[in-house]
Automatic annotation (TrEMBL):
Residues 1-148 form the Trigger factor ribosome-binding bacterial domain. This is Trigger factor. It comes from Ohtaekwangia koreensis. GO terms for molecular function: peptidyl-prolyl cis-trans isomerase activity; protein folding chaperone; ribosome binding. Pfam families: Trigger_N. GO terms for biological process: 'de novo' cotranslational protein folding; protein transport; protein unfolding. InterPro entries: Trig_fac, Trigger_fac_C_sf, Trigger_fac_ribosome-bd_bac, Trigger_fac_ribosome-bd_sf, Trigger_fact/SurA_dom_sf.
Length: 448
């Protein structure tokens, strides 16, 4: 057997494997004997089928299976033993494979195209500057949240005539064209102030006509109404007609013990002051998570943009086509390729940082994370006390489910968190406090 690597450049190469009869024939003969012992063929006693009969009936398929098995192991061993850092999987040369004459050939040559990771450098130091935007929660945001909470837990009625603040449900259709949505919904308070009058004073079966580009300032509302993406909503225009079917009105819940218990659980808060403070605390925590997530995104974007990594684009496109089993077209791959490359570059950078700085995740850490998730989902401290020692077994079962995918998902999550923490601890993070509205604008203007 002869295995060689011919490098086209630093990121592409061909692995050639040459086999002679002595490399595979002993395996083939052993398999033929195994077939002879197990085969149940009419005219022969089980276990007494002659090898010649087996070879005549199954010889070609046995040969193909054994050579493929041998190739798979030897290719994998060669890559591992020579520490070749490959991307994706080796791609066999299909033209050469199709040209093989399995009936007469005794020597074989196979080729595999591989993509490789080129050497690259990265910088995790104080020279790296990434912006962070902690959100200052103002009183307006707290008041809006309190109002939303009271409405969410308020009493719903169904009046005959719509007023400001009501929700209307019904049929939406375009004035021109075939567009029609039988179950549409408009929250009147989300409509632009100067357009709201059109939607008040309406009764069941009455219709209102409007220009869709004028009624909402938030593209998300336009997207919800028309059933399209927010990107498509940016260019949405034209006149539409809404036919009212139902009007709903929510009377905000009173701020009292009943509301406290429904929102935060029984006896978690007992006074209005405690309730408002708890709402503020919850809102602040939520916005902190958003700010932290955006910082993580900015860090990822920085390293993708500022780390030069040479990638084998043609190989990667071929591999993506091959691994999709025909489910993805070449046009789709070309369209999504830059997005895929960004993700790949970030993975390569993270892996290098983890390897260079010995960042690891132990099985016990994954188990502890699983227990945290289970406890959070099923009731906190009371759930822990109820289960006692059984929590470990529940966590182990969860991690083993889905062929270990739950374990790998949590493992990768913890590993990613550790890598990001290492980066944050060693780079310069420039903080700029912003309001909720400023933060939303910054996120919206971000390119990725």
């Amino acid at each position: 057997m002869e295995i060689t690597l011919n490098k086209k450049n630093n990121t592409e190469g061909i692995i050639k494997i040459k086999l002679t009869e002595g490399d595979y024939q002993p395996h083939v003969e052993e398999k033929v004997k195994d077939y002879s012992r197990k085969a149940n063929i009419k005219g022969f006693r089980q276990g007494k089928v002659p090898s010649g009969v087996i070879k005549k009936m199954f010889g070609k398929s046995i040969l193909v299976d054994e050579i493929n098995h041998l190739l798979s192991h030897k290719l994998s061993d060669y890559i591992k033993d020579n520490q070749i850092k490959i991307l994706g999987d080796p791609l066999p040369n299909q033209d050469k494979a199709k040209a093989i004459d399995w009936e007469t050939q005794t020597d074989f040559e196979f080729e595999y195209q591989i993509g490789m990771v080129d050497e690259f450098t990265y910088d995790v130091s104080s020279k790296v500057k990434v912006k962070s935007y902690p959100i200052e929660v103002d009183q307006k945001t707290i008041d809006e949240t309190l109002n939303d909470v009271r409405k969410r837990f308020g009493k719903v009625s169904y009046p005959e005539t719509s007023e400001a603040g009501d929700n209307i449900f019904g049929e939406l259709r375009a004035q021109e064209g075939d567009f029609k949505k039988e179950q549409a919904f408009i929250s009147i308070e989300k409509v632009e102030k100067k357009e709201q009058k059109k939607f008040t004073g309406l009764k069941k079966d009455e219709e209102v006509e409007f220009e869709v580009s004028k009624i909402f300032s938030d593209e998300a509302e336009t997207a919800q109404l028309l059933g399209i993406s927010t990107e498509e909503a940016k260019s949405a225009k034209g006149k539409y007609i809404f036919k009212v079917a139902t009007i709903s009105r929510t009377e905000p819940a009173e701020i009292n013990t009943e509301l406290f218990d429904r929102v935060f659980g029984k006896d978690a808060v007992t006074t209005e002051e405690e309730f408002i403070n708890k709402v503020k605390e919850t809102v602040s925590e939520n916005y902190k998570r958003e700010s932290d997530h955006f910082l993580d995104h900015n860090i990822e974007d920085y390293f993708i943009t500022n780390t030069a990594i040479n990638l084998p684009d043609d190989f990667l496109k071929s591999w993506l086509m091959s691994s999709s089993n025909g489910e993805v077209t070449e046009d789709v791959i070309n369209k999504e390729f830059e997005h895929y490359k960004r993700g790949l570059k970030w993975d390569l950078v993270k892996n290098r940082i983890a390897d260079d700085n010995k960042i690891t995740v132990e099985a016990d850490e994954v188990r502890s994370k699983a227990k945290e998730l289970i406890v959070a989902q099923f009731g906190g401290q009371a759930f822990i006390e109820q289960l006692g020692d059984r929590l470990d077994g529940i966590a182990d079962n969860y991690l083993q489910n889905e062929n270990g995918q739950n374990f790998m998902r949590l493992y990768n999550q913890l590993r990613g968190e550790k890598i990001l923490k290492y980066i944050k601890d060693n780079i310069s993070i420039e903080e700029k406090k912003v309001s909720v509205e400023e933060f939303k604008k910054i996120v919206a203007e971000h390119k990725h």
